[in-house]
Amino acid sequence: MHMADALLAPAVAGVMYGATAITAGVSVHKIKKENDSHKIPMMAVCAALVFAGQMINYSIPGTGSSGHLCGGFLLSAILGPFAGFISMMIILAIQGIFFADGGLMALGANCWNMAFYGCFVGYFAFWRPLMKNPGRTKIILASVLGCILTLQLGAFSVVLETSLSGITDIPFGTFTALMQPIHLAIGLIEGLISAAVLVFIYEARPEVLSLPQNSEAREGKLSLRTTIIVLAATALVTAGGLSLLASSHPDGLEWSLFGNAEEGYAENLSLDEENFGFQSDAADKAAAIQERTSFLPDYNLPESESAGGTSLAGIIGSLIVAAFAVIVSFLIKIIRKKEKVSA
After folding, report:
1. How many whole angstroms separate alpha carbon 49 and alpha carbon 230?
2. 65: which DSSP letter?
3. Residues 89, 38: contact at Cβ < 8 Å?
4. Full DSSP string of 66-125
5. CB of 22 closer than 8 Å to CB of 115
6. Of 86, 227, 228, 324, which is most buried by a Cβ count within 10 Å?
7. Which of 4, 146, 129 shows the shortest CA–CA distance to 71?
8. What count of other Cβ atoms lies within 10 Å of the Cβ of residue 42?
């Protein structure tokens, strides 16, 4: 669901940057009040895990489309909505800057569409209410319902932002009719993937999850260190190995815009991938910056389609995401200490 700059008018992109910045500011303010000893390592390893998971596109049978993990709901269920949102921002920013995945002008919109709904709507609508008395069945139910709802909201936001940008060759009604059903299927699969990760953590170290304070205490089967090692190893194996199994079909957004007629599937809006949408000086400048910063474009070595390059890009990306998550966490801790001293 990573939007390209061509899908947005600069004014709409600016508004979405503003909405994301406000949400980020509130999130940092809330995180400063927290003092969880396990938050920093979990933020690092979970951000890396979601980055790796997003590299694996899974086919949606009979459509010629694919989907990938979004991750906002999963992160919020572990880290809470505020740290989850900041983690998603880190992931999406690194994808756009270093891997040319999603436009830089569209980064604010991508953060809103892929992070806000999962981290806040899914968390407060399903995760928090159902986790008052947590259990495996409720975790699965919350994950499936949360991911389906948040991907529907994210997909509709893409349609709305595109419509508000005045792109007449992407009609609102047709685009909506294509985007919502395909992301319903994608959301269902994401819900099951998220449930598998969350059930593992619940069995291994339940206090790591973001659970209400009055929820029933439960002893985990693994130590915190072992749990983090398992999640980190899963992220590296996913990024470096399982990413090679990713479907080559276009994701839900690309499928809606361009179709997949080459492989015998629907043409959908059948736009020209090289020339579509809104052209602007701001988008051109953002693209020029991205061309200089993306040292592993499309998750591979420059001008390469080798499997080794994909594995290397996945591992490097996961490590960069984890490192940035740690840096951001420490910066927030430093700000918190300085505010306490000045008070």
Report:
1. 11
2. E
3. no
4. EE----HHHHHHHH-HHHHHHHHHHHHHHHHHHH--S-STTHHHHHIIIIIIIIIIHIII
5. no
6. 86
7. 146
8. 26
pLDDT in tens, 34-67: 877 678 889 999 999 999 999 999 999 999 999 9
Span 237-288, pLDDT tens digits:
999 999 999 999 999 999 999 999 999 999 999 999 988 998 899 999 999 9
Best CA proximity match to 286, nearest among 87, 8, 21, 23:
8
- Beta partners for residue 296, in sequence order: none
Q: What is the spatial distance between Cα 87 and Cα 134, in angstroms, rounded to a whole number?
A: 24
Look up residue 73 and give its amino acid: F
- For residue 72, which amino acid is it? G
d(CA 97, CA 201): 31
Residue 279 token pair: 């052209």
Pick the closest to residue 154 from 67, 244, 36 (CA basis): 67
Q: Is the pTM of this model over 0.85?
A: yes
For residues 263 and 255, give the distance between their C-alpha atoms in angstroms, rounded to a whole number.
Answer: 12
Rounded Cα distance between 103 and 7, Å, is 9
For residue 32, what are its two tokens? 């400063």
Hey, what are 301's tokens?
């070595």
Distance of CA 21 to the CA centre of its chain: 17
